[in-house]
Amino acid sequence: MTSSKSAAAIASAPSPAVRGRGPRRSVLFFAFAFAVIADPASSVAYAIEAALRALHGDLALLLPTMSLVIGLVVVVTANYWQLVRRFPKGGGAAAAAGRAFGARWTFLPIGALVVDFVLTIGISIAASASAVIALFPGLAPLRIPLALVLLLIVAGLTWFGHGGRLLFAVMTVAFVVISVAVLVLGFTSPHATGHAAATTDPGRSAMLAVVLAFPVAMALATGIEAPSTAIAQLGQLDDTHRRRFGRGTLALLLVIVGGLTLALTALAVRLHIGIPGADSTQIADIAHAAAGPGWLYGAFQLTSSLLLLAAASSSFQAGPGLLKALSGTAERPGVLPPVLGRINRHHTPYWSVVVYLAAAALIIIAAAGQEQELVLFYAVAVFVSFLVGLLAMARFATRENTTGLAWVNGLAAVAVAFTLAVNLLRGWPMLSLAATLLIAGGLYLRWTRAGRPTGIQDVEARAEAD
Predict the structure, then answer these.
(1) Confidence at residue 256, expressed as pLDDT on a 0 to 100 scale
(2) Whole-number Å distance between alpha carbons of 39 and 47
(3) Angle, in degrees to the nearest 10, between helices 295-327 and 350-366
(4) What is the value of pTM for the model shown?
(5) Cβ contacts of 247 within 8 Å, gap of 6 or more
(6) DSSP readout, 371-437?
């Protein structure tokens, strides 16, 4: 799901115990990693269903499609593994682009992240409302008001800074534990099975269907860049340990998100769980078929809803934090108006929060509170950032004469570009690309008018460190 500031309260002050060996560092890693993973883990709630809808309900092709998705997630994760090694103080794709191609290229991944944060908030809130409605169907007529109330609650908690987000790691762990329980029960002693047909169109080309469907489910890849930027929060660690934290988090992310995705997909196929009804979601139907209507199903819906709210809160911190960093300080000229950098006593840039609140509310209303309407737009902006990061790493590898790495990064960039192109060919996702380019262009113009202040490549790292 996007860069995350969810570990900032956990990793706030230098400590000799953390600098040394011992259990304190292990606790810090656990808290940091599971807080950051909250964002991508929450994508499981809607990515599998998005793929099934793109396949027109063809369960026979769902597992191959999600396997291809996980394969590309591995490729993108490998690139961020390299980014963490090269930029242990944080910065992500923006730092890589600025140093590989020049400062002006920094604004393309920044523009992509601004759009991605808005979409993360919107889709996470909408999906959280859907999880609640699946548990309490009587709330279905109130879908939009419910989503807007949840949005206001999350935005309101943002006012108090990072203190309200210390439970992110716990929410992630709770969701994983409950999901594993549902999976075990579903594979060994399911409560019921669905009635979806194995295939809906046996005469069509399976390969073509999978190739056209998997880009929609690449919403699962959002949040992969989070560790590469969030490590800037770990000021109490040296570069070596920040690399270890970042890479360890990426590995854990891949295991948890990839494992849950493929296991839930396999269970959906096994239990014949197809496209859900209007007042449910696919993972809710999977959990209901596996566990029945009892406490485990309720716990699954509750933890998934809270995890989605945590993902939205993560972007409500990271997005305004990025705008604050772009607004500059008295010592450093900024790109955006200073009003966006004004903070309260909890260090929250409240006017920037209002900007994201208004933008997220707008897209929730436009999508009628349906997260599946927003999934089509979701994987576009962040894939622009992925593409720029891959091209930057390929440029570094070429300069350093590491031919093998240059080829790997180049082929990965081709795969990401293909995914982006297929999503754009659907039509409406062009709006995400247009918004990304407009924001990037606007920021570049303001940067030029401000006299091209230095250090723009490190804006993401500053946003996280603040």
Answers:
(1) 93
(2) 13
(3) 130
(4) 0.89
(5) 81, 84, 85, 227
(6) HHHHHHHHHHHHHHHHHHHHHHHHHHHHHTT-HHHHHHHHHHHHHHHHHHHHHHTTSTTHHHHHHHH
